[in-house]
Amino acid sequence: MSKNKVLDTALSLIDKYIQLNHKEIARKLYAETGYCDQDFNKFIAVITSGELTLREYIRKRRLYLAALNIVNNPDKSIVDISLEFGYSDQTAFARAIKRDYGKTPAEIRKENKNLPDVRKILENRLSNKSRLDSILERFESDNLSNTDWNYFEEFIRASDEMGFDTSTCCLISELSEKLSVPFGHLLEKCFDMAIDYNNDEEYHTNEITEFMEEIGVQNEDEMMEMCDYYDCKWYELTFVKAIIYRLGIDSSEELEKMWKYYNCQWTHGAPFPLTKQMVQDYHNKHK
Q1: Which of 23, 85, 111, 285 is most enclosed, with most CB atoms within 10 A?
Q2: Mean pLDDT of 226-255
Q3: Residue 21 banded pLDDT, cuts 50, 70, 90
């Protein structure tokens, strides 16, 4: 069987046996093409740059054919259609329809509009010969699961496990070629650097938050205003500076005079004994 015939046959077989579960469909694929589900899983994942796996393709195709059934058979109950396509109940079916199409089964039947067909999307990807020829060649070999797939496996892993988007993976791939560094090795280094950077950012943010709580600052805007007022860095602020700024006192020396004037007894952690009104009264009496 030619490579193109294998692909056409596989997609047609999935449609033919779409009402079966994933394992049963995989057995049918292997029996009629000679390729296992892992082979097709890798191929579809590479074709779609990690966006789809065989299992996800089957799920989307099943849902599309079920939705098509709803539109084409208006007299058929939605409950019967959901059971026919392997859903445990109508509620699970409705949730799946809503998640993929943003509409309920009843709305889809009423509107009778075209829905996105994952098979057409995949076939459009397959039509891009310049991109896929090297991949399609794998279907001429006896075994797709060989070391030639290492690059594609790394690409898929970067998308699925590391969270890199397709564009980022392509950039890292191009850089690995220019530097003559193995793609997988460079991916790991980029991932480690991303983790370290995020940890540093998280630590920095937590440190600032804790510092703000310690000196009694309510938010970052107030802290930045204080930094501008004192012409200092955030970590150079103190609780006393925050109090002086908030109460409108000129200096720490004036603050000490007010404590003596009002005979304040204060310890860290207790409510501050001075108020803006007390400061205003003091200023009025000592003009």
Answers
A1: 85
A2: 83
A3: confident
Task: List the alpha helices (DSSP H) in the chain.
Answer: 3-16, 22-33, 37-47, 54-72, 78-84, 90-101, 105-111, 118-126, 129-136, 150-160, 166-179, 183-215, 220-230, 239-247, 252-262, 276-285
Domains of the chain: 3-141 (1.10.10.60), 146-213 (no CATH), 216-285 (no CATH)
265 by DSSP, 3-state: which?
coil
Taking 90 as the threshold, does the pLDDT of residue 127 lie above it? Answer: no
* Whole-number Å distance between alpha carbons of 10 and 6: 6
pTM, two decimal places: 0.49
Residue with tokens 């279907």: 139
The DSSP string of 12-28 is HHHHHTTTS-HHHHHHH
Residue 189 to residue 197: CA distance in whole angstroms: 12
